[in-house]
Amino acid sequence: MRRMKKMRGAYIGEASVRRTAMLMIAPAMVIILGMNVYPLLYNVGLSFFWYNLLDTAKNGFAGVRQFVEVFTNKGFGNSLLITGYFAVVSLVVQTVLGTLIALLLNMEFKGRGFVRAIVLLPWAVPSMVNAAIWGWILNANYGLLNRVLLQWGVIKEIVVWMATAFSALNMIILADTWRMLPLTVLLLLAALQTLDASTIEAGIVDGANAFQRFWHIKLPLMKPLLLVLLIMRTTQTIKVFDIIFMMTGGGPGNGTMAISFYTYYAIFKNLNYGTGATLSVAISVIILLIAVLYLKVLHTDDPS
Amino acid sequence: MKKTLICLALVVALLASQCCMVAFAEGEKPETLILVTDNGCLAQYEMVADKFYEKYGIDVEIIDVAYDNMHDKITTMVLGGTQIDLFSVDTIWPAEFLSAKIAQPVTQYFSQEELDALFPGYVEEFTINGELAGVPTLTNSKWLFYNKAYLEQAGYDHAPTTWDELAEMSKAVVDKGICKYGIAWSGLQAEGVVCEFGVLLDSFGGAWQDADGKWTFNSEEGKQALDFMVEGAKQGWADPASSTYSDRVVLDPFMAGDIAFVLCWSYAYGFCNDPDNSTIAGNVDIALVPGANGTKTGSVTGGGGLGVSYTTKYPEHAVEFLKLAVSYDIQKDALESYSNMPVLKSVLADEELLKANPEFAVMADEYNYSTKRPTVTAYSEWSAQFQSYLNQALAGTMSVDEALKAAEEWSAKF
Fold first, then answer.
1. What mean pLDDT is predicted for residues A194-217?
2. Residue pairs between chains A and B whose CB atoms are closer than 8 Å
């Protein structure tokens, strides 16, 4: 009987602790619900309504018609293509270069610590500052790039790098890569350093060359971190906004109008909140689908 | 005794009513009004705020943002319910701001006499279907700024009066190695390119729309205007990087001494003649925009004004700020101190002022020819795509005919 009381006492104590814990986290939960969950649900709800402040006659319930209108709009297709190109090229370039640099920095050499610090520096530059720096580097008349290329005789007259859509988009990728590559290097270097040395030594004993050791041993072992990196960077590249805002404003000829920038225009320039909400939902679904795809392709329970 | 009591009662009643009035006035009177503006108008509105405090004892807190962010700042604040009282209104926003209930109409606060004292074209820009979306507080237009030292070196003693003459002078300064190019355009995909095309369109004798509102810019004159902008770079006398210049950045090659001409707003005169900013300070002069097809000149109106927010609790006080902003002393001080052109006609009728500052006379003359940009409720949406076509023509990725045709088809939707 005494024991039961004791147990009962312990049970009451746990409940009390749980209640206290709930009370303690309640303010944070309220803030999260209010600042994240409510706006998210409100946005999803809004995506089913026509809500244009400059054309109020049409405002009202739209159902899926607004989605149909958005998806069949030429501008949406154009921005999706631009975003896709930006995401794919950025990810491929940054992952390949990042892996190569991480492999180099993982090797033993004198001054390795210093080189590692230098490589990480661009990541410390704020995105807006990075855009301003590259804006000047690429300036046709006074930019460093044209000056260097002219001096080396690579070009005979100035090149207006930001004049055409394709060139401008690639220049934005270059500027973004310069800033974000260190993050990729940092994460891949961390992954390389956690690899079991004996596994790699076993590869050497078995006669595997450097490429085989990388491809068959290191890369599979790095898969979990690579998955995190890809999901993180894919989301970031699909949401690209600040560097476009600063460098091109969506031009030339809407050639850098990525989907986030297109959404920004719908909401803040055109004051069409319904279309903006629909686009936001579409971006979220696209990112979710890509994340699921990555998980399916790359996720393994047993990396060995 | 009875009389004394009645007098006493009257005095008490009078005092009580006075106390009530004071309490009412104090209850209604704001301590602070909040104004959102951009750095271009900041100095002028600070001056108005000081006078406003002297006159009414009300502080005006000014939120200063970059012009490119101002539209979004105002719309998100007002539509999000933030209590602000006043904001800057660019000349292209009145229709949008009234329609979206961002600016409240102020028509009932202004008499016809007060409005007649202002330049009519600018009041018209703020009037949508008979409702005033605010009042213009400063006027602007684009003028031709030129480097007089370069023209002298090239053997010219006057500014060009026709576009053909400008092309000829541009070729001369390039051929003689005086500077890199004759002119650069504000060709970036931004509002500046619409203004730049507007200047050329008007000065070539074209028009945006006819009297019935039908789009007419894709005319012979419109094609000549855009073709003139495009061909200059091909022939080597206009800056090939023009498609990357905003209407502020286009001043960089001018102030660096790399070009001889530029089209810009009034502030460029003081800015480019300031040795802190410019390597050509002292050599910058101003002229009417050249003409073509028998047109003397042509330009686009700019400037802006102030609107009263839908979220203000003190519309009457906000309107008083508007009235003070267009008063004679403020308008004259803003012109003399900051080269901000007045909207009050009487200021530019001051002969002494014009004698001391001859450039003001040239500036005022352009107002007789400048036309406004199209009045479109969804102006931002219309302009964003329109800019894209003009920018592509300047970058050479679309022909002039293709760009104007696409722009015409797009405009037909508005």
1. 88
2. 94
Which member of A56, A249, A268 has the closest CB to residue B75? Answer: A268
The two three-digit tokens of residue A225, written as one number = 């971190």
pLDDT level of residue B60 (50, 70, 90 thresholds) = very high
Whether B72 contacts chain A with CB within 8 A: yes
A106 neighbors A189 (Cβ within 8 angstroms)? yes
Looking at residues B210-232, what average pLDDT do you find?
95
pLDDT for residue B350: 87
DSSP state of A58: G
Collect all residues with Cβ–Cβ distance below 8 Å to A177 and sequence separation of at least 6: A90, A93, A94, A97
pLDDT digits (tens, 9 = 90+) for A265-289: 999 888 899 999 999 999 999 989 9
Establish if B148 touches chain A: CB-CB under 8 angstroms.
no
Residue B396 above 70 pLDDT?
yes
The DSSP symbol for A157 reads: S
Helix (H) or strand (E) holding B260: strand B259-264
Long-range contacts of A85-89 (CB under 8 A, 24+ apart): A85/A169, A86/A169, A86/A172, A86/A173, A86/A237, A86/A240, A86/A258, A87/A234, A87/A237, A87/A238, A89/A170, A89/A173
Whether A10 shows a pLDDT value over 60: the answer reads no
Chain B residues with CB inside 8 Å of A263's CB? Answer: none
CA angle A132, A133, A134 (to 5 degrees): 90
Instruction: Tell whether the model's pLDDT for residue A184 goes beyond 50.
Output: yes
The confidence score (pLDDT) of residue A300 equals 65
- CA dist., res. B60 & res. B63, Å (int): 10
Nearest to A254 among B101, B243, B388 (CB): B388
Contact B202, B224 (CB under 8 A): no
Rg (CA), chain A: 26
- As a whole number of angstroms, the distance between CA B189 and CA B387 comes to 5
Average pLDDT over residues A221-235: 89
Counts of helices then strands in chain B (DSSP H, E): 18, 13
For B245, which DSSP code?
A: -
Q: Kindly identify which residue of chain B lies nearest to residue A270, measuring between CA atoms.
A: B381
**CB B387 within 8 Å of CB A265:** no
Position B5 pLDDT exceeds 60: no
